[in-house]
User: What shape does this take?
Amino acid sequence: METRPQQPAPWLQQIYDNPWLLAGAAIVFFVLSYIVWGVIDLLTIPAGGTTP
Assistant: This one.
């Protein structure tokens, strides 16, 4: 029987297989999403000015 050379696992599978990498990826995702959310929130604030 012929054996095939083993291919390395895809990068996403490596993250799923390692709980520390999965936790790190989750933290990075949430930090970046909150930063983007905050920047969008700041950009949507109307410019202040004095009212006559």
Remarks:
- The helical segments are 11-17, 19-43.
